[in-house]
Specification:
It is found in: Cytoplasm. It comes from Bos mutus grunniens. GO terms for molecular function: GTPase activator activity; phosphatidylinositol-3,4,5-trisphosphate binding; zinc ion binding. Keywords: Cytoplasm, GTPase activation, Metal-binding, Phosphoprotein, Repeat, Zinc, Zinc-finger. The protein has 28 helices and 43 strands. The protein has 1138 residues and is α+β, with helices and mostly antiparallel strands. The strands form six sheets. Strands 18, 19, 20, 21, 22, 23, 24, 25, 26, 27, 28, 29, 30 and 31 form a 14-stranded antiparallel beta sheet that branches. Strands 4-3-2-1-7-6-5 form a seven-stranded antiparallel beta sheet, with helices on one face. The protein has a seven-stranded antiparallel beta sheet with strand order 11-10-9-8-14-13-12. The relative contact order is 0.04.
């Protein structure tokens, strides 16, 4: 083939690309110009013959061996068991892509002992291509300053700046290849051109977001390698590899997708199926564990020659062990041991389970192969000797006590690890009696059952009938075995009853089979079984329950439970240590049986005062508070705990539309009614036309939907919900009750009672009908009428007297069309005769009046300070600084945003806005010496309600906004990580950190949460906060002596409205700006600053009136103000004439 004539080097254009190959939107199909695809290209004129290693230069200048290199983004990060190879040479080279022989692209090239890689820039973390040194056959010079790196199948052409630099590169490459070949001969590695000796843990094709074609991905040890296709994987020439020591894997919203997150990039993969996704997740999590593991323990144990091979299959360098059998095993055999159950073999990793490996345990494992007395003890246990048997010596009654008395530490360690080991079966016909603390009854059952593959997480999706396999299942001698068919001898798998922790019964038709049940085990596995008929399912559920539930809790078996099992708990006065109790969930009742004490009454889950989850993701605690008792259920095993949590939350929620199916309070009042009544009592008693005015339909329906779903978790906040929206939600809820508040059966009797002329007789009839109502209806009627009685006490202000309230609530409560006047008369009578009809004594009435009086006084005080609730609020806002001549008094409607407030202040002072003026409204806290820039779309009214006496609002220029916007424009991704100085508030004990000063901590901020790690190498965060619940204030109190002047204060408000506070300091001002910019970016979905300032006029809200005529609203605005002022002087005046 004739070689093309090349133009001079000076005429060759350079295409310099800044974006990485792995940046969003990049394509590997070869369509983009400048892409690095070499699929259809080869240097045909270059022979790919081998070369002689003797011709390689064996000596290099010292400058080539230890060059002065700029730091790489991956340098300095935590490294796993695979050491980071030393960079031999790095620098800029021009690379010739396959699209044309005259187009060169500048690339940053790095050579180490294992790979030749090139990047778009010296700051990129991930390469565009990597070529294993083992694949390189030779390096040749071609023309001026050019050289080629030739593999058995591919050729890569580079151009240096000078002949001297080319020579240095060629010598470095040649020496690296020679050393690689020498190592290969010593270790009997694979031939050149074939991938290294380390096999992959998992490999296959995956879709990567931003790429047209699928990539071939391989999980190898502690790395994830990306290849264009299977052919390149076999050649060993890939795109890049990801060090999993800085990686984290999590599921995405799509069922088939998952994200691999690193500090530099988020890789979003999609698999072919959900099952395949689970396999990838497991493989990558294993790579993370491998990356964060250490070989120190393994190397000490391998020092003994017999420990260098698996005790079962003989595989070399086994990295797992059975600590009770004192044998070392490989990864594959560890899976078999784990399947035997913890009662037979306790499997631990030599590299990952660091806390397990005490000095004594390591010595015991090493001594087990050489020490005769330890081997004799093993033999005795293997023959069925009991670890806790009586030794014959009262002073040392057990073998463990004897070993302790003799000072035999290795024997003690071995015996401790075998305390719970089950005795082996010596006779297959007559099984040995098991040494349970309580002997369980023998249960036997067998039949064909349909089964799915076991899962390591909850089954969120429906399992189709095709996913079930027909198996012959046998329950005998405390073991549930499943076989391929009834004639099979060897079971496909077993589940020991002693390992079952939970039995759950999903509702019919949850999966492909109408009747199913789930079995959870101690090994964090979930087994799903299906049957054709309800009778078969009930029989299996009954037998399995009998097999694993002890006689102590056998009363639970009589319940028609949805979930049954054991959980660690704390209750009563025994909060020092957790105990194990047995629980059964039946409908909305949770039955509990504790080891000590009488059988407890069931918890009425719909009547709970509190249902919350506390603690971090690793140590969660479910808190159930009902009247005078509190129960703490601990999440020791995450899988079954999450199942219990979801089932209890569902049972505690409303299950229907009737009153009795709602979440109830102590007095049998639905929580939804209590929430609305309480909110209106606090914020709407003096609101004009309350219950007469309608709220916005969309907001009302949205609020009602959330209340019906879980009213206990809904917190109505002033500023977020308008009183008219809440009142409309309450009216709609009462009107939509299927049976009505007064029930269909008694509705006519109530209406007829309103026509009785004698008042005393009519009241007596009302009392009689009230007593006939169901308990929940009766309690709700009393609560509602009590509330309306308070509302009409303020009729001079709210214009809602008894008659007006009756007109509104009559048709609502009796579900009429408004034509029957008798419905309104019943409500009016009940309000007028509230004290007599509901037998309200003087003490109850006094408490009610005191409560209402206190609420109104608080609202009046809010009016005086400029933060009143009704209508618009008047507050003081300062321009640029807090001084008398800079203050402005502004009316704040509920819809006003921080941007609108800023523009209004600037308009009042005639301040012009230039192009790069970033005027912002700040919340300033003088006590904390900190300020928070409000987001432009943030509502101002809720902020005013939370301001203390030492806080105020000020409008001024945001000096850092331009730098923050420039940073966000150049920053790729939504994450930020780095070290900061950290200090928690002295009043908080959440993290267990010393509070005397600031400490170095590693932080990672992403779109969902802020995580705190003790150090960069830490795998699990010490603390995690949801990012949208955080408020970030610039500045740290001086009395805390912050180490730098670039600090900020973070406040987190919990669901219980408890505030937690932390202080963080950065090293530079730019670093502080980057953190603040990222916070704003993730909290507000990327909208940090408005594209154009809004000039929206704020019109007064339209007052909507209903269709039924009322007594006219009286009085002008001035008269209304005088009425409020009169009430301020004497709040009880409105109640005296009642």
């Amino acid at each position: 083939m004739t070689k093309k004539e090349e133009p001079p080097a000076s005429q060759v254009p350079r295409a310099v690309r800044v974006a990485s190959l792995l940046s969003e939107g990049e394509d590997l199909s070869g369509d983009d110009q400048g892409d690095e695809d070499e699929d259809d290209y080869a240097y045909e004129h270059v022979p790919n013959g081998d070369w002689h290693t003797s011709s390689l230069s064996s000596s290099l200048p010292s400058s080539l061996l230890t060059p002065e290199l700029p730091p790489h983004p991956m340098d300095g990060l935590p490294v796993g068991p695979t050491p980071t190879p030393l960079v031999i040479k790095a620098g800029w080279l021009d690379k010739n892509p396959p699209q044309g022989s005259y187009i060169y692209q500048k690339r940053w090239v790095r050579l180490d002992a294992n790979h030749l890689r090139y990047f778009d820039s010296n700051k990129d973390a991930y390469s565009k291509r990597f070529v294993p040194v083992a694949c390189i056959s030779r390096v040749a010079a071609i023309g001026d300053q050019k050289f080629e790196v030739i593999t058995n199948n591919r050729t890569f052409a580079f151009r240096a700046e000078s002949d001297a630099e080319r020579k240095e590169w060629m010598q470095a490459l040649q020496q690296a290849v020679a050393e690689q070949r020498a190592r290969a001969r010593v270790s009997s590695a694979y031939p050149l051109g074939v991938q290294g000796s380390e096999p992959h843990d998992h490999a296959g094709s995956l879709e990567l977001r931003g790429f047209k074609n699928k990539l071939y991905v391989a999980v190898v040890g502690d790395k994830v390698e990306l290849y264009k296709n299977l052919e390149e994987y076999r050649l060993g020439i890939g795109i890049t590899f990801i060090d999993m020591s800085v990686g984290n894997v999590k599921e995405a919203a799509d069922r088939r997708s998952f994200d691999l997150t690193t500090p530099y990039r988020i890789f979003s993969f999609s698999a072919e199926s959900e099952l395949e996704k689970e396999q990838w997740l497991e493989a990558m999590q294993g790579a993370i564990a491998e990356a964060l593991s250490t070989s120190e323990v393994a190397e000490r144990i391998w020092a003994m020659a017999p420990n260098r091979f698996c005790a079962d299959c003989g595989a070399a360098q086994p990295d797992w062990a059975s600590i009770n059998l004192c044998v070392v095993i490989c990864k594959r055999c560890a899976g078999e041991h784990r399947g035997l159950g913890a009662g037979i073999s306790k499997v631990r990793s030599l590299k990952m389970d660091r806390k397990v490996w005490t000095e004594t345990l390591i010595e015991a494992l090493c001594a087990a192969v050489t020490t005769s007395d330890l081997a004799e003890t093993q033999a005795l246990l293997g023959c069925g000797a009991g670890v806790n048997c009586f030794s014959g010596d009262p002073k040392a009654p057990t073998p463990l006590a004897l070993a302790e008395q003799a000072g035999q530490t290795l024997q003690m360690e071995f015996l401790r690890n075998n305390r719970t080991t089950e005795a082996p079966r010596l006779d297959s016909v007559r099984p040995l009696e098991k040494h349970y603390s309580v002997i369980l009854p023998t249960v036997s059952h067998s039949s064909f059952v349909y089964k799915t593959a076991s899962a390591g997480k909850l089954l969120q999706d429906r399992r189709a009938r095709e996913e079930f396999s027909r198996r012959w299942c046998v329950l005998s001698d405390g073991v549930l075995s499943y076989y391929e068919n009834e004639r099979a001898v060897t079971p496909n798998g077993e589940i020991r009853a002693s390992e079952i922790v939970c039995l759950a019964v999903p509702t019919p038709d949850t999966h492909g089979f109408e009747h199913t049940f789930e079995v959870y085990t101690e090994g964090e596995r979930l087994y799903l079984f299906g049957l054709e008929t309800a009778e078969q399912a009930r029989e299996w559920i009954k037998c399995i329950a009998k097999a694993f539930v002890p006689p102590l809790a056998e009363d639970l078996l009589a319940r028609d439970f949805e979930r049954l099992g054991r959980l660690p708990y704390k209750a009563g006065l025994s909060l020092q240590r957790a105990q194990e109790g047995w629980f059964a969930l039946t409908g909305s009742e949770l039955y509990a049986v504790f080891p000590e004490g009488p059988c407890e009454e069931p918890l009425q889950l719909r009547k709970l005062q509190e249902l919350s989850v506390q603690g971090d993701s690793e140590n969660q605690v479910l808190v159930l508070v009902e009247r005078r008792r509190t129960l703490y259920i601990q999440g020791e095993r995450r899988l079954d705990f999450m199942g219990w949590l979801g089932a209890i939350q569902k049972a505690a929620a409303s299950s229907g539309d009737t009153l009795s199916e709602q979440q109830l309070g102590d007095s049998d009042i639905p929580v939804i009614v209590y929430r609305c009544v309480d909110y209106i009592t606090q914020y709407g008693l003096t609101s004009e036309g309350i219950y007469r005015k309608c709220g916005q339909t969309s907001k009302t329906l949205r609020l009602l939907e959330s209340l019906r779903l879980d009213a206990r978790s809904v917190r109505l906040k002033e500023g977020e919900q308008h009183v008219d929206d809440v009142s409309s939600a309450l009216k709609r809820f009462l009107r939509d009750l299927p049976d009505g508040l007064f029930t269909r059966v008694q509705r006519l009797a109530w209406l007829e009672a309103s026509e009785i002329e004698d008042e005393e007789e009519k009241v007596s009839r009302y009392r009689e009908l009230l007593a006939r109502l169901p308990p929940v209806n009766r309690a709700t009627v009393k609560a509602l009428i009590s509330h309306l009685y308070c509302v009409q006490c303020f009729s001079d202000t709210n214009q809602m007297n008894t008659h007006n309230l009756a007109i509104v609530f009559g048709p609502t409560l009796f579900q009429t069309d408004g034509q029957d006047y008798k419905a309104g008369r019943v409500v009016e009578d009940l309000i007028s005769h509230y004290v007599v009809v509901f037998s309200v004594d003087e003490e109850e009435l006094r408490k009610q009046r005191e409560e209402v009086t206190a609420i109104v006084k608080m609202r009046v005080a809010g009016t005086a300070s400029g933060t009143q609730h009704a209508g618009d609020f008047i507050c003081t806002v300062y321009l640029e600084e807090k001084k008398a001549e800079a203050e402005q008094h502004v009316k704040i409607p509920a819809s006003m945003t921080a941007e609108e407030l800023t523009l209004e202040i600037l308009d009042r002072r005639n301040v012009g806005i230039r192009e790069k003026d970033y005027w912002t409204c700040f919340e300033v806290n003088e006590r904390e010496e900190a300020e928070r820039p409000l987001h432009f779309a943030e509502k101002v009214l809720p902020i005013l309600h939370g301001l203390g006496t030492d806080s105020y609002l000020v409008v001024k220029k945001h000096q850092s906004m331009e730098a923050m916007l420039l940073y966000l424009a150049s920053h790729v991704g939504e994450t930020k990580h780095g070290m900061m100085k950290f200090r928690e508030d002295r009043s908080l004990l959440g993290l267990g950190l010393p509070t005397g000063g600031f400490h170095d901590r590693y932080f990672i901020l992403n779109s969902s949460c802020l995580r705190l790690y003790k150090e960069v190498r830490s795998h699990r965060p010490e603390k995690e906060w949801p990012v949208r619940s955080l408020k970030v204030y610039l500045g740290v109190k001086k009395k805390l002596r912050p180490p730098t002047c670039w600090g900020f204060t973070v406040i987190h408000e919990t669901e219980k409205h408890e505030k937690q506070q932390w202080y963080l300091c950065c090293e530079t001002q730019m670093e502080l700006r980057e953190w603040l910019a990222t916070f704003l970016f993730v909290q507000h979905d990327g909208l940090v600053w408005p594209s154009e300032p809004s000039r929206v006029s704020r019109a007064a809200p339209e007052v909507r009136l209903g269709s039924i005529s009322l007594i006219p609203l009286r009085g002008s605005e001035n008269e209304m103000r005088r009425s409020v002022a009169a009430f301020s002087a004497d709040p009880l005046s409105l109640l005296r004439n009642v």
